[in-house]
Amino acid sequence: MLALRGISKRFGAVQALTDVELEIRPGEVVALVGDNGAGKSTLVKTIAGVGPADEGTVEWEGRPVTVDRPHQAQALGIATVYQDLALCDNLDVVGNLFLGRELTTAGVLDEVEMERRSRELLATLAIRIPSVRIPVASLSGGQRQSVAIARSLLGEPKVVVLDEPTAALGVEQTAQVLDLVERLRERGLGTLIISHNMADVMAVADRVAVLRLGRNNGTFDIPGTTQQQIISAITGATDNAVTRRRARRGGTAGDDGPDSAEGQA
């Protein structure tokens, strides 16, 4: 559905991305992980058209496309939900869902139709909120995140990008959001989820793409991949180094030589 080929991005003297490759297929959840400064946010902005790449190609359904502006990404079918959600606390759920794309009849807001569509959309996604007419400010963090994701689906996108969707959420609220990600997969959408939470990644992702210092550092299929392997790719460690550290903590004999120093490095 979406492919990035050889994406590079520079900010002055800082090389943020170098020859990054990424693919997202229909009905697939891809997790993008990496340490702070790895280039995840820069890559998201490239996909969303907020910060176009200096080099490389964006392919949509197998053909090269130009994504230099957010409206170009939206026209293709790419929806992005940023970490700050961009919700208006003083508006109700209906007002937030249709903000900027309000329905009108004879020049007057069609509140009845917008409310009907809002209820239908939330029911389809199994999003539970007290009412579509209460201010968003009164919703929980998980409910607010769900409303932001639901709003992105009004344009019928084919790829949804979620930037840290479970950050600062409790256990129950996180479960609600992860259930919603599962429903996006069931609808056949390609989903890119950026997260620091390895438990969330292992729970919902089909594949994990690791960025380290602005470069690809491995792509893993979740079946058959351990959380430790992904963390090793994020930090730049090797499996052998991790094993040696564990052995050293356990007091294994013979770990005082050169191998031990390499493990510390």
TrEMBL record:
<dbReference type="InterPro" id="IPR003593">
    <property type="entry name" value="AAA+_ATPase"/>
</dbReference>
<dbReference type="InterPro" id="IPR050107">
    <property type="entry name" value="ABC_carbohydrate_import_ATPase"/>
</dbReference>
<dbReference type="GO" id="GO:0005524">
    <property type="term" value="F:ATP binding"/>
</dbReference>
<dbReference type="Pfam" id="PF00005">
    <property type="entry name" value="ABC_tran"/>
</dbReference>
<protein>
    <submittedName>
        <fullName>ATP-binding cassette domain-containing protein</fullName>
    </submittedName>
</protein>
<feature type="region of interest" description="Disordered">
    <location>
        <begin position="241"/>
        <end position="265"/>
    </location>
</feature>
<dbReference type="InterPro" id="IPR027417">
    <property type="entry name" value="P-loop_NTPase"/>
</dbReference>
<keyword id="KW-0547">Nucleotide-binding</keyword>
<feature type="domain" description="ABC transporter">
    <location>
        <begin position="2"/>
        <end position="238"/>
    </location>
</feature>
<dbReference type="InterPro" id="IPR003439">
    <property type="entry name" value="ABC_transporter-like_ATP-bd"/>
</dbReference>
<keyword id="KW-0067">ATP-binding</keyword>
